[in-house]
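Example for reference:
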Amino acid sequence: MQRASDLFTEEQRKQVEKAVVEAEAKTSCEVVPVVATASGRYDRAEDMIGLWLAVFAAITVWVILPRQANESGNWDGAPFYIGLLAMLAGIMVAFIAGAIAGNRIAWLRRLFTPRNQMREEVSARARQIFFDKRVHHTSGATGMLIYVSLFERMAVVLGDQQVLDKIGQSSLDRLCQLLTDGLRHGEPADAICSVISEAAIQLSGPLPRDERDTNELQDALVLID
């Protein structure tokens, strides 16, 4: 699985930080870009992969292991208890292997995780970070969170009350779409910088920079593994 801390070079991190500084020179909005490795644990996917591999192992053992025939005089095949033990061993090994694979192979875990569940986890995690990183606690209620979750391949843009009042939820949704399009077709750092710049353009009119404004939140790209 791609880790957030490994995705960006030092130069790219400085590129994002510069974009935040330039944006906040135009608007009183406090922009906080965050990239996380994943937003949820998704244990159910590991269990599902293990279960399917266990079923496949049981069928395979049943098919390939010769069993003792009922006919008198035929000693071909293994005794029943040997087949049963082999099947149980195969099921256990396959389940454990599937759970490990589901934990370590991102695309496989994603395949067995419902998209609605991932969307709910990303949304919940973004809102948690919105409060934990104090984006919601700026003096003017002008915080904006730009959140990217790598495992789910989803993004969220959240704005505090003043941001919502001035540009509306539809503008935040368009910024989020711009971000996801950029992530799909280009470098993550470029996509994040692009949406930060666009946010500054949209916010500079309704929420212009004031000489009394102070930088309340860090400008650096936040990476969460």
